[in-house]
Amino acid sequence: MPANKYVCIICPNSCEIEAELSDNGKIRVKGNLCKKGEDYARKEICSPERGLTATILVDGGNLPLASVKLSKPIPKKLMKQAAAEITKIRVQAPLKIGDVVMKNILGTGADVVVTKNVGRNP
Amino acid sequence: MIKKEIDVVIVGGGPAGLAAAISARKEGVSNVLIVERGESLGGILNQCIHEGFGVERFDEALSGPEYMQRFIDEADKLKIPYLLNSMVLEVSHDKKLLVCSAEGLTVTHAKAVILCMGCRERTRGQVCIPGLRPAGIFTAGTAQNLINLRGYKIGEKVVILGSGDIGLIMARRMTLEGAQVLAVAEVMPYSSGLPRNMAQCLTDFEIPLYLSHTVTEIHGKKRVEAVTIAEVDSRWKPVAGTEKRIKCDTLLLSIGLIPENELSRKAGIAIDETTGGPVIDEDLQTSADGIFSCGNVLHVHDLVDWVSLEGEKAGKSAADYVKGQKEKGRMIKVRPKEGIRYVLPHQITGKQDVRFSLRVMAPERNMRLVIMDADKTVKTISKKRVNPAEMISFTLKKEELAGCRDISVKLENAG
């Protein structure tokens, strides 16, 4: 199998990584500057995952929206579906960074977590 | 008119201003004030809801609002005063500021000023795209504001001109919000965004990138109906016969950022026409005594982590200045040479360690940076890859700078 080429998205180094899956199922990785890059390339070959950020509607807040993220990356192919799921969320102010507004999205084990403080509308 | 006396005034409460204020206060200046024209502190980070901020500083990939909140919390803990919805209308060479706020018009006498106004986006007018003026044309940052802060849906079929990072981030964001991003056209033969953003924002969603292409016409009267893109030659002239008409309702522009230096120019501060920011020394002091500059108003950064670092340096420098401890002396010029677009600071005393920042002209592989004193090599730094999208920084120790008179930096092939 030919080597797959990836640009690592984990940090600003943006390492160009080659990962090769050999016949006996072993994965050879080169071009990465650190362990994170190796892990990233292995994941890319087997089951690529991504983080996801979005916004949710807030009622009674000093801002109309709060930004959110996932507590952990989810399979890449579920991103659009997860984004659509998040748009259904509607919560009451106040919100604090770290508040969980949806648990276990699409059964992935990832929670939807608030990333911006929103106070009550004064 | 109200009059005030403040030791250090910080113009702008974004990431640079917050870091500068925190650092000035920690260096022992109690009388500091942040003047912010927006409704809240944090600047552009408010709308940058994606992750990736703070990898260098905190070893965590935070979202913009989370990154900004860490600094706001620290400023609050230090009880740093700030004015919101307040505009600095004028800064004079001798550090008098005219401030318009809910308090009224105020003349503030400052012992030191730190300019942290950030930058703004280049617009359609600055790249002269022919066509009518229908609705549906946005700069990428405006689109980001409308979508992420106000919750508007701004379009369904999108073409993006320019491959700057904000445009790439918006390509992904709009795709995930259900829009169709049909093309990204980039006038240069390479992307102007960070490689990791190319990977996770375009490649992941199979969005086509047209290098050496530009938008030659916008169609539609009330709303954008289509754009024509065409290939360009090496002098950015569209090549006849290569036009492609793409049906769309939205055009995003991600074509560069301009440091916002109207206040600096009006104050008579010398501006470097390459960076668009003030000419500075190693303490980030501008050509006006006691006026400092940091962050995107000084030069456009690709990582906020380095903005914060620069802000801290400016805060310390302003504090040293107020305490009468600023390093003085004959200035050594620092010049960019072959392959280098700019290098900061522009001049140094050579009496202390200096962190330099630069950008290269074009992407290259297997290169080295050569720092010279006249025709003598001071230091070389190997670079496997260089890219104009990625700012390069390095520090020279004062021992390495000892005796230098005429410093230059060039890029050469490592062979």
List keywords for this structure.
heterodimer; A: 122 residues; alpha+beta; five-stranded mixed β-sheet; three-stranded antiparallel β-sheet; 2 helices; 16% helix; 33% strand; B: 415 residues; alpha/beta; seven-stranded mixed β-sheet; five-stranded parallel β-sheet; 22% helix
Characterise this structure:
The complex is a heterodimer of chains A (122) and B (415). Chain A is an alpha+beta fold. Chain A has two helices and ten strands. Chain A has helices spanning 35-46, 79-86, and strands spanning 4-7, 16-21, 27-30, 49-50, 53-59, 65-70, 74-75, 90-92, 100-102, 112-114. A five-stranded mixed beta sheet of chain A has the order 8-5-6-10-9, with no helix packed on it. In chain A, strands 1-2-3 form a three-stranded antiparallel beta sheet, with helices on one face. Chain A is elongated. The N and C termini of chain A lie far apart (62 Å). With 415 residues, chain B is an alpha/beta fold. In chain B, 22% of the residues lie in helices and 35% in strands. Chain B has helices spanning 15-26, 55-58, 64-77, 124-127, 140-148, 165-176, 195-202, 262-266, 304-322, 398-401; strands spanning 2-11, 32-35, 51-53, 62-63, 82-83, 87-91, 96-101, 104-115, 119-121, 137-139, 157-161, 180-186, 209-211, 213-219, 226-231, 244-247, 250-253, 257-259, 291-293, 332-336, 340-344, 347-348, 354-360, 364-373, 376-386, 392-396, 406-413. In chain B, strand 1, helix 1 (15-26) and strand 2 (32-35) form a beta-alpha-beta unit. The model of chain B has no long low-confidence stretch (mean pLDDT 96). Chains A and B meet through strand 5, strand 6 and helix 2 of A and strand 4, helix 3 and helix 7 of B.
